[in-house]
Task: inverse folding
């Protein structure tokens, strides 16, 4: 183990490098990638185990969804697996099932092969007693991360770097999260033994080895980077039919990381995860979700890829889709990204003259200019106008509206691309006739996919947004369930009726 002062110097250099990369990226436009897995790459040489790190990366053609910068996800295979044969398994969504999520979030995915033949079965060196950043797999994997961080064409946000893996890859993911917490904003551990146990102790937690033992080991790996744990999040997942790695390591890993993160935690209610899973969330004293513990009924020792995975060689495609859960968990709970400011709507209204409706609105934006206003009118003649005006205010007429009752909303988009909260336009009448009776609020509970299909929501950048209020409901998929209340004709809000 290197002396503390050398670790401190190395960590300080890394932090300075990340800061310079972040500054450079702020001026770099986002480039679209090829939207396909790369050919096999050769990266850094391994001075510990020999050979060089090889593997693949996926650079999506889609734009990033968080803070206009790309996330970087390091995915580590398990023993007796390879990156090309199991993590990606061709150019489709087979293997560990990451391509669709990379496209949805605009994230770059790394899938390296373990160098050497550690433990005789092509494992990662998770149980190595030398935890130096310059030793073994730590060295080549951190070098890989730095290659992508320092290359401006990928536009990687240093605050959105994550690591996950299965078995030895899951254990190595935890080792990396402990060794370099300032680099990894989040970790996902699938059936990974805890740091500090040996390679011969995977099937049973050693007597006397506790979460505190693992936490102490984790802190020791971090050196002077301990402060970075205050903004890291972690998820663990394991199967009830896993008899290769002891199931008890799952909750032990999560409990150890909570100790490392520090402070008091509150255990939340168990939430069902599609694919026979159940998730127990833990929030910190600030109400922030920090750890997630998922148990998957009937899952053996395998990466939970979900539908689309390869369903062979320790990859399961019949139960939970961990990539879907993990990306939502990381992106929703990232504590290092400060969302760019958005404009604030100050007023909006609609006036009627015959069959013409004039919509007016005003917004303020201290961090730039209002680039555009979007008007939505719900009623007999729908309006969805994303170019209603710009600047401090606007007024636009929509002629030829059919008779009936309308409601609507206005949003403002800033020069930085951020969108304001919606300003609601109260219900109004166009044309003659007796206005309908007061609207009766109703609720609908369904998946985000079903809400969009039923016309209660729409899709924007991979997320489902409620019609009218434009509230973000989370990812557009069949796994997330939300309740929407229709408070006016065509106007929906998240939650129950008032």
Result:
């Amino acid at each position: 183990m290197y002396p503390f002062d050398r670790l401190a110097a190395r960590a300080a250099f890394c932090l300075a490098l990340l800061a310079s990369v972040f500054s450079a990226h702020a001026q770099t436009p986002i480039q679209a990638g090829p939207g396909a897995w790369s050919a096999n790459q050769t990266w850094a040489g391994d001075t510990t185990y020999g050979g060089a790190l090889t593997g693949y990366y996926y650079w999506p053609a889609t734009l990033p969804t968080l803070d206009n910068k790309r996330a970087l996800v390091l995915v580590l295979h398990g023993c007796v697996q390879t990156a090309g044969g199991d993590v990606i398994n061709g150019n489709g969504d087979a293997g560990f099932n990451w391509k669709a999520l990379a496209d949805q979030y605009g994230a770059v995915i790394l899938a390296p092969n373990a160098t050497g033949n550690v433990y005789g079965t092509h494992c990662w060196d998770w149980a190595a007693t030398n935890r130096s950043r310059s030793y073994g797999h730590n060295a080549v994997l951190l070098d890989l991360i730095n290659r992508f961080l320092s290359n401006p064409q990928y536009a990687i946000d240093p605050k959105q770097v994550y690591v996950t893996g299965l078995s030895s890859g899951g254990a190595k993911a935890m080792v990396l999260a402990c060794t370099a917490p300032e680099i990894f904003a989040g970790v996902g551990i699938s059936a990974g033994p805890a740091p500090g146990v040996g390679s011969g102790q995977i099937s049973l937690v050693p007597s006397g080895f506790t979460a505190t033992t693992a936490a102490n080991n984790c802190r020791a790996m971090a050196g002077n980077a301990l402060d970075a744990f205050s903004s890291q999040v972690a998820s663990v997942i394991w199967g009830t039919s896993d008899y290769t790695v002891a199931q008890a390591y799952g909750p032990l890993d999560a409990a150890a990381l909570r100790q490392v993160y520090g402070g008091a935690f509150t255990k939340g209610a168990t939430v069902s995860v599609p694919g026979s899973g159940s998730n127990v969330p833990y929030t910190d004293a600030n109400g922030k979700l920090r750890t997630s513990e998922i148990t998957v009924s009937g899952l053996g020792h395998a990466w939970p890829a979900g539908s689309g995975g390869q369903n062979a060689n320790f990859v399961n495609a019949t139960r939970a889709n961990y990539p879907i859960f993990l990306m939502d968990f990381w992106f929703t709970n990232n504590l290092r990204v400060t969302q760019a400011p958005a404009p604030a709507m100050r007023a909006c209204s609609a006036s009627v003259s015959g069959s013409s409706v004039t919509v007016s609105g005003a917004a303020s934006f201290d961090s730039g200019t209002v680039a555009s206003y979007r008007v939505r009118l719900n009623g007999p003649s729908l309006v969805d106008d994303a170019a209603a005006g710009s600047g401090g205010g606007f007024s636009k007429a929509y002629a030829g509206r059919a008779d009936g009752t309308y409601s609507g909303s206005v949003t403002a988009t800033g020069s930085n691309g951020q969108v304001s909260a919606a300003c609601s336009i109260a219900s109004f009448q166009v044309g003659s006739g007796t206005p309908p009776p007061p609207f009766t609020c109703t609720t609908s509970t369904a998946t985000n996919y079903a809400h969009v299909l039923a016309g209660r929501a729409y899709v924007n950048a991979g997320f489902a947004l409620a019609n009218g209020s434009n509230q973000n409901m989370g990812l557009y998929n069949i796994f997330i369930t939300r309740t929407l209340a229709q408070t006016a004709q065509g106007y929906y809000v998240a939650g129950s009726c008032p």
About this structure: The domain at 344-430 is CATH 2.60.40.10 (Immunoglobulin-like). Confidence is low (pLDDT under 50) at residues 1-28. DSSP finds nine helices and 27 strands in the chain.
